[in-house]
Each structure stands twice: as C-alpha cells, then as structure tokens.
Amino acid sequence: MNYKEACKYILNIPKFGKKSGLENIKILLDLLDNPQKELKFIHVAGTNGKGSVCTMLSYILCEHGYKTGLFTSPHLINMNERIKINNIDIDNEDFINALVQVKNKIEYMVEQGYNHPTFFEVLVAMAFVYYNNNNVEYVILETGLGGRLDSTNIIENPVVSVITSIGYDHIAILGNTIEEIAREKAGIIKHGRPTVLYYDKKEVFNTISIECSNKKSKLYSYNDFNYGILKRTKKNIDFSINNKYYNYNEVYLNTIANYQIINISIALTTVEVLINEGIDLNRKSILQALKKFTWPGRMEYVMDNMLIDGAHNVQGIRMFVKDINNLYKNTELSILYTSLKDKPYKEMISELKKCNNINRMILTQMNSDRATDANLLGEYCKEIGFKDIYTITDIDDAVEYAISLSNEGRMVCCIGSLYLVGYIKSKMKEEAQYD
User: Fold this and answer.
1) What residues contact 65, with CB distance under 8 A and at least 6 apart?
2) Any residues with CB less than 8 A from the CB of 18 and at least 6 apart, and which?
3) Nearest to 234 by CA among 216, 254, 256
4) CA angle, corner 320, sides to 316 and 323, nearest 5?
5) Phi and psi torsions of 259, nearest 5°
6) Which of 50, 262, 279, 428 fits as disulfide partner to 274, beta carbons 3.0 to 4.6 Å?
7) Does 294 score more than 60 pLDDT?
8) Closest Cα to residue 324, out of 267, 386, 426, 256?
C-alpha cells in the first residue's frame, strides 16, 4: 500500500462505516492491545476554539521538552495534519504503517460480523498506535463531535478534561438546547479527574458543574478574564491577561484575531491545572511557546489583502465580525462566503450583515453534495439588504475572482467553511509549486 492508496481507503470508509456508540472503537482498540492505555491525555471538547487550545497546549509542552502528540480535526489540505508529534505532521511512511496495523484488525472485525469502523474511528486508532509506537509522553486529544459518544472518549483517565466555548452547532446530533449540547460535551469529564471550563452562558456552567459534582471532578471554571492590548500590528498582538487562576503581564501572539485571546485564557488556565497535577512548567518557557504558536486558517493572511478564517457556525461568525469591525472599520470589504447544508446559513449571513463596511458579497459552493446551493445564499443576501452580490457557483471561478480583487488592492475575507479555507490554501500551495 502506498500513501495515495492509504488515503483512498480512508476516504472510502464513509460508504460502509457505521457508527455504533463507542462499541466499534472499543473492539478495534482491544484487538490492537489498547495502545491508548499506555498514554497520558489532555482531552479537549467544545464548539469553538478547541483546535487552537489543543495546539497552544502542544506548543507549551513541547517547549518544556515533553514529547507531545497532537490529534485534531478536520484537516485543511492533507490527512497527515490530524496526527502530529512535537507539532510535526506524521510522515507518509508512518501514516501507512499505522493504517496497515489498524486495517488488519478491521478485516478481522468484519469477518467476525462486527460493523466496519467509521472514518473518524480509524484515524483515532491510527493516532493511538502511532503515539504508542513512538513513546509519546502526553497526547493533546481533540474530540471530533460532541464528547459523550465521540470516539476519543474511549480514554479512561485524562490528566485533565478541557471544555472550551459552547454554542449551537451540530444540533441535529447534539441537541436543540444549550443544556443538551453542554451535556454531550460534558461526557468527557472523568471520575476524579480535574476539568477546565470557559463559559459565557449560565446554562453551560450549571450543566457542567452538576456533571463534575457527580463525578467528583474538581472544576476550574470562569466566565470572565481581564486583558489589555499593549501593541497590535497587522500580524500580531501583545497583551496582558489574567483571571483568578493566573496573571501574565505580557503575552506575544502571532495572530490578529482577538478571539484567540479567549483561547489563550483557556490554555493558560489548563497550564495551572497541569502544574497542580505535578507537570513541571515554567512561565518563561510558556511565553516562549506562545510566541511560536500558529494555527492555520484562523484570521490568516494568504495574500497582502486576502484573509481566510475558518468560522463555520453562528458563534464563530459573530466573533469574526467583532474582530473585523475593530480592525477594518475604515476599509471596504469583499466577503467570499460558502456554507454546508447542515449549517444555519441564514443566521450566519445575518451575523455577517453586522459588519459595518461590507460592500460586496461573493457566494459560491464547494464541489460536494454537502454544500449549500450558492443561489440560495445569494437570494438570502438580497433578502436581508446586501446590495452588491455576486453568485459564482463554480468554486474555482469564485476564488479566482476573490484573488483578482485582492490583487487590485481590495480587502477580501473568505469565511463560512473550513473546507473553503482548506481549498484556498491548497490552491495557493499548488500555484506556488507551479511558479
């Protein structure tokens, strides 16, 4: 099996994989001799920010010399991005080797009449095998969807469970109310193990605190923190930050996204819990790690006048709009937008309408059955009062048009889907290789 064949096998899994609670992943990992039981985990769930928090924590542990695994999803360009050690993607050879080990057990499962594991279950098992084979000291583990029935929740005794900001997303699966969604996320809380929670809704706190009480999990929770911007450029922010758990006078971050400050606050709170759990971490190395932190596709410039952001739900769009109104209040903006069918595109576009200075909306759709029809997006934009609307159904044409506007010196923001972000990054990577 070569790398291309490995990716093809994994991508074809949705055609025959069937989710069955945690039963599939348990059987598969049992057949693999439970590699996860040899690992120490920091488990992270939430609606927004969990990938950033995971990556921040990975940089911090790596800076202190700990061999650190990082498992996140989705990927933007290559599947290898999901599985890292010391912030370096798994290479193709190790990717193939991990898949071969997992695939052999899957074939036995199917022969015995069990369900074929899902796409995500296969990747989780591959990650555990890879981390165990490489004697990783800590694994930062991001849930895929929810928490309670997420495949990553097969782990038993995390060092700490972390729950980031919770909002309305995947309501068809997780529930129609904030309490129901929070209850699903709370599924990662384990008996006797500490929990970190950032919340901006009292219902979230109430739900999580009850679960922590039931499981005798010490809860480190907060809904407010203080920060002050010391310096801002087009590429980074210097700021001070504190809450009841920590105080930092100067933090340097390679991003222009204010919403990453929320994620920093969660990461730094988690650091305090890790120190309480006996992990040797110091302030100098923590700050040095945060200087190195990058998380692609979040308020990222891909050209001088072209910004991409992976916000793909109402809460994410709302945070994007807040930052844009602060950073570009005197600049006319063109927005390239697309969405998936399972996302509330009307609510998301309505949030975009709160941008003070959008002068052009470009609507497109990904080459996928999951994509929302660009014409529907365009009709709704017209309905709520956008004036200059371009509906370009072909994604290549839409991106080329956005690039042409950027080359003319116009500011363009691309938002609405991580698939759009990945598509743009992949396209630009190909063009750079061609050049």
Assistant:
1) none
2) 24, 115, 116, 118
3) 256
4) 145
5) -65, -20
6) 279
7) yes
8) 256
* Long-range contacts at 282-285 (CB < 8 A, ≥ 24 apart): 282/64, 283/248, 285/60, 285/63, 285/64
Domains of the chain by residue range: 3-292, 300-434
CA–CA dist 292, 330 (Å, integer): 30
- Tokens at 96, concatenated: 């193939």
CA 142 – CA 152 distance, rounded (Å): 8
Q: Return all residues near 383 (Cβ < 8 A) that are at least 6 apart.
A: none
The Cα–Cα gap between 95 and 258 comes to: 35
Cβ(186)–Cβ(219) under 8 Å?
A: no
Strand, helix or coil at 258? coil
Prediction pTM value? 0.90
Q: Which residues are 75's β-sheet partners?
A: none
> Could you give the 3-state DSSP secondary structure of residue 251?
strand
Closest listed residue to residue 259, CA positions, set 335, 315, 323: 323
Per-residue pLDDT, 429 = 74
Give the CATH superfamily of 300-434.
Mur ligase, C-terminal domain (3.90.190.20)
**Who's near 425: CB < 8 A, 6+ residues apart?**
76, 77, 296, 297, 302, 308
pLDDT reading at 173 higher than 70: no
State residue 221 phi and psi, 5-degree precision: -125, 155
From the candidate CATH numbers 3.40.1190.10, 3.90.25.10, 3.40.50.300, 2.60.40.10, the one assigned to the domain spanning 3-292: 3.40.1190.10
Terminal alpha carbon distance of the chain = 31
Structure tokens belonging to residue 24: 């599939």
| Residue found under tokens 């348990």 | 26
Residue pLDDT, tens place only, 203-261? 999 999 999 999 999 999 999 999 999 998 878 899 999 999 999 999 999 888 888 99
User: How many CA within 13 A on the CB side of residue 228?
Assistant: 6
> Could you please report the per-residue DSSP string of 154-198?
G----SEEEE----S-SHHHH-SSHHHHHHHHGGG--TT--EEEE
As beta bridge partners, residue 163 has 45, 197
Q: What are phi and psi of 301, to 5 degrees?
A: -75, 125
Locate 61 and state its tokens: 């542990």
* Strand segments (E) across 233-298: 237-243, 246-253
